């Protein structure tokens, strides 16, 4: 059976809609006085930093994904644990922060292999090394 053209493009929505939006019995209300619907305004400096981070993330992914790196690990100051973010999850989170001024919670990676994730600092150093090497070869 020929199935050419039967797969349709699904638009990218980084997170599903909130199933409790507008519900006065929303269970998250027990978490305290947090108005998740009120958008936060980012300052110009914060916006510029997020845009820079998104640009850097694209470079890091292009350089490291072909080498088997699945994403970035971040040491969380709040809980003291390492959080593993796949490239697309981190991109979605940063874009949501840029657009909405906040990030919704997300499910952590399931049993991530720490060897497949590197720190932001590692990414920066790796990219700097690649750029330096290319500059030396182009001279």
From TrEMBL:
Lineage, highest ranks first: Bacteria, Bacillati, Actinomycetota, Actinomycetes, Actinopolysporales
Where are the residues of the annotated region Disordered? 1-36
According to UniProt, the name of this protein is DUF5319 domain-containing protein
* Organism field: Actinopolyspora mortivallis
């Amino acid at each position: 059976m020929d199935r050419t053209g039967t797969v349709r493009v699904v638009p990218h929505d980084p997170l599903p809609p909130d199933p409790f939006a507008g519900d006065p019995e929303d269970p998250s209300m027990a978490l305290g006085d947090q108005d998740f619907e009120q958008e936060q305004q980012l300052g110009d400096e914060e916006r510029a930093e997020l845009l820079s981070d998104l640009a850097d993330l694209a470079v890091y992914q292009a350089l490291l994904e072909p080498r088997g790196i699945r994403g970035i690990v971040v040491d969380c100051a709040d809980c003291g644990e390492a959080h593993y973010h796949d490239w697309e999850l981190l991109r979605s989170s940063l874009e949501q922060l840029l657009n909405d001024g906040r990030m919704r919670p997300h499910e952590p990676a399931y049993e991530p292999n720490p060897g497949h994730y590197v720190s932001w600092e590692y990414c920066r150093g790796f990219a700097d090394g690649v750029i330096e090497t290319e500059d030396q070869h182009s001279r």
